[in-house]
Amino acid sequence: MVTSTISSNVQPPAARKAFAEKGYAAASMDDLTAEVGLTRGALYHNFGNKRGLFAAVVEQIDTEMALRAQDMGADTKDLWQGLLAEGVAYIRMALDPEVQRIVLLEGPAVLGDPSQWPSQSSCLEVTQQRVRQLVAQGVMKPMDTEAAARLLSGAALNAALWIAASDNPKEVTPKAVEAFQLLASGFLKEPA
C-alpha cells in the first residue's frame, strides 16, 4: 500500500479544501494554516513551502485514486479485466472536480511531469507486476513488461488529463474510455 507523505502535524483536509476551492495560486498561506491553527513557520518546517504542501496533497489524492482504481479492478472476473477496469476507473475519476483541479490541471502546472511523481511511480510498479503476470499466463503477447506498463499507465493518465482540460469532460470521457480499451486490447495475445 502506498502511504502519503503529508505530516501528521498538518491536517490535509484544510490544505486540500483550500487548493480545491481556490486553486494553488489563490490559496494563501493563511488559508492553508488558519483552519488547523498552525503558524506559517510550522507549515514551512513540515513542507518547506507552499509548493511542498501542494505536492503532498497531490500525492495523497493521486494515491487515493490508485487505490480506488485497484478496488475496481479487484471486483472483476480475471486479471486482464481487472487491469482494464483499473485504467477505466482512473480515467473516469477525471470527472471529479477535486481530482480535475488539484491533480490533473494544477498538479502538472506546479509540479511538472506527472509520470515523475512518486505516486505515479507506485502505480507503474503495480501495473508492471500485473502485466508480468498476464504475459506469463499467455494472455498478453510476449513483450517488455516495463514498456507495456508505461504505455498503459501513460494512456490512462493522458486520457484523464484530456478529460480534465476539455470544455466538456462528460462528452470526452466515453471517447477516452473506448480509445483506452481499444489501445489496451492490442496487447492481447488473442483478440478479445
TrEMBL record:
<keyword id="KW-0238">DNA-binding</keyword>
<protein>
    <submittedName>
        <fullName>TetR family transcriptional regulator</fullName>
    </submittedName>
</protein>
<feature type="domain" description="HTH tetR-type">
    <location>
        <begin position="5"/>
        <end position="65"/>
    </location>
</feature>
<dbReference type="GO" id="GO:0003700">
    <property type="term" value="F:DNA-binding transcription factor activity"/>
</dbReference>
<feature type="DNA-binding region" description="H-T-H motif">
    <location>
        <begin position="28"/>
        <end position="47"/>
    </location>
</feature>
<dbReference type="Pfam" id="PF00440">
    <property type="entry name" value="TetR_N"/>
</dbReference>
<dbReference type="InterPro" id="IPR009057">
    <property type="entry name" value="Homeodomain-like_sf"/>
</dbReference>
<dbReference type="InterPro" id="IPR001647">
    <property type="entry name" value="HTH_TetR"/>
</dbReference>
<dbReference type="GO" id="GO:0000976">
    <property type="term" value="F:transcription cis-regulatory region binding"/>
</dbReference>
<dbReference type="InterPro" id="IPR049484">
    <property type="entry name" value="Rv0078-like_C"/>
</dbReference>
<dbReference type="InterPro" id="IPR050109">
    <property type="entry name" value="HTH-type_TetR-like_transc_reg"/>
</dbReference>
<dbReference type="Pfam" id="PF21351">
    <property type="entry name" value="TetR_C_41"/>
</dbReference>
